[in-house]
Each structure stands twice: as structure tokens, then as C-alpha cells.
Amino acid sequence: MQRGSDRLSRHRDDEMKHELQGLLRSGHPTRTEEWHDPEPTADDDPQLAGGPVAPGGSGASLVTVRQELARHLTRSAFPAPPRHLAGTLRRAYAPDTLVEAVEQLPSDQRYGTVQELAEALVREQT
After folding, report:
1. What is the value of pTM for the model shown?
2. Strand (E) positions, 22-104?
3. Which contacts qualify for 106-113: CB closer than 8 Å, 24 or more apart?
4. Is the separation of the CB atoms in 49 and 59 below 8 Å?
């Protein structure tokens, strides 16, 4: 014997599951109010499903590499050599592929902005 505070019988519960099964499998939103539904992605949103953007990877344009660098580097990190910038990226938990690409840049160079660093990364990978 089950003891609890069930409001509905087992049969009514199964009946309700059967009624909702079509809605849940239809692929359409199940909410009646439109504002509950997630907003679709825009054309200019960054590619997130493919993983982190890395120089030399697919879809790694100058704009996307610069955007990824700007997410992890602040203005106070510049000007600096690649070794210092790689350490800053590691402390900011940047993707390993991005940190490794920065570490491979010539150590005698100093980069003053995110734009300069992104241009150097894209230029090195092509």
C-alpha cells in the first residue's frame, strides 16, 4: 500500500501522460505564452556550438579571433610580449588552442592592442 499525499490516482496520472505525449513529441513549443520560449539565434551571433574559436580553425576570421581574445584580455594586459599575454590568457581560463597559438608567436614582438595580437595570430596561421 502506498502512503503519501498523491492528489490523483495512478490511472488518472497515466491518462494525463498519454494526453501530453503528443505535445511533447511534436517539436513545437509547449508553452501557451510566447515570451517563455527561447529566442532563436541571430545571423551575426558567434559560433558557439563548434567549440572555442582558435586561429587556424574553421570559421576563425580576424573578427572572431579578436572577439575571443577580447573576452579574456583586458586593456591592462597591453603592451606585452606573447609570453606575458599567454600567461594572462591562462589565468583567464582561455581555451588551450588560443593560448598555444599565442605562445607560438615570435618572442621578440610586443603587442599594444587586441587588434594587433589578432592580426598577428591570423597572419601566422595562414
Report:
1. 0.56
2. none
3. 106/82, 107/81, 107/82, 107/83, 108/81, 109/81, 109/82, 110/79, 110/80, 110/81, 111/78, 111/79, 111/80, 111/81, 111/82, 111/85, 112/78, 112/79, 113/78
4. no
Residue with cell 503528443: 22
What cell was used for 61? 576570421
Q: At 68, list the grid cell.
A: 575571443
pLDDT tens digits for range 52-68: 555 655 556 888 888 88
C-alpha cell read off for 40: 532563436
pLDDT digit string, tens, across residues 23-38: 777 777 666 666 666 6
Residues linked to residue 113 through DSSP beta bridges, in sequence order: none
According to DSSP, the residues that pair with 111 across neighbouring strands are: 80
Cα–Cα distance for residue pair 122/54, rounded to 1 Å: 10
